[in-house]
Amino acid sequence: MKVLGIESSCDECAAAVVEDGARILSNVVATQIPFHAAYEGVVPEIASRMHTEWIYGVVKEALDQAGLTSGGIDGVAVTARPGMLGSLLVGLSFAKAFAWSLNLPFIGVDHMLAHLYASRLDGAAGDEPPPEYPFLGLLASGGHSIICRVDDFDGVTVLGTTIDDAVGEAFDKVAKYYGFGYPGGAAIDKLAQTGDASAFAFPMPNLYKGEHRYDLSYSGLKTAAINQLEQFRSKKTANLEDIAASFQKTAIEILLRSLFRAAEDTKLTTIVGGGGVAANSYLRSRLAEQPELRSIFPRLDLCGDNGAMIAGLGYQYLIRGDRSPLNTTASARVRTFKRRYP
Hints:
The protein is 39% helix and 19% strand. It contains 11 helices and 10 strands. It has helices at residues 33-36, 44-65, 85-102, 111-117, 167-178, 184-192, 219-227, 240-266, 281-288, 300-303, 307-320; strands at 2-7, 12-19, 23-31, 75-81, 106-110, 135-140, 145-152, 155-161, 270-274, 294-296.
């Protein structure tokens, strides 16, 4: 079964064809980074307009690369949630029209569940075989920071999540303030390679009220790095590379502290990463140092938003017999992905 997957939740206009939920026949991602770089962040109005202009061409290129015409597609999957509403609606509307015109089965899927599925695609995790259920999922991106138990492709229990800012958002805001470059996560990761991570001793959040053992918080770190930098200086002289390295270390250690707690409590030893921050080199190296844990990350081009993960996940729903009605609409948020404190 060949499924066309369409992804437009943020600023990447993407489409792919995946066969039987695993074999990637094509994977096209049209990035909007040059259009948002001047603002050092994604501008929703620009993003949705670019999706409108590009979606037809991106889907056609995905079909061409797969060596197919529209008649060779057996089903259509598309991101329906969460994301920027205007961007989501462009991809969702195109996917519904495509499916309706060819009388194809159609399914709207959750973008975050698709990130967890990315490692199950053929060759997505290098030589690593697809992870067996259950495992711990780590979803880290500009919009989400989630630690979860994953029992099936759509069986996810959120254990911990951010109570304020997502880890990727903190990377972007700190990068913007210091002029590190855009996208912020990649810019900080690069600068940190030559920096001293001990130059600044940034604070870790203390979440202790209620059931927050696995939860995350980044507003305090962001404030410390931007507005209170001198309070946390550990050495006399420091440069921008040191700020980047110290910030990155603390941001990732916040994630890992909660993740390691979840691994200890659940006794699950396989961790599957997903989302843009899953490409971070410090995160990957720290997890590789844990001999008792098996960490699986999709290759870099499948960490960010892409259509292949949408098509792969969509296939699992479609063969189960699930279908979405054509009046399905987009949702900007998923309630369980964020939490209040306490």
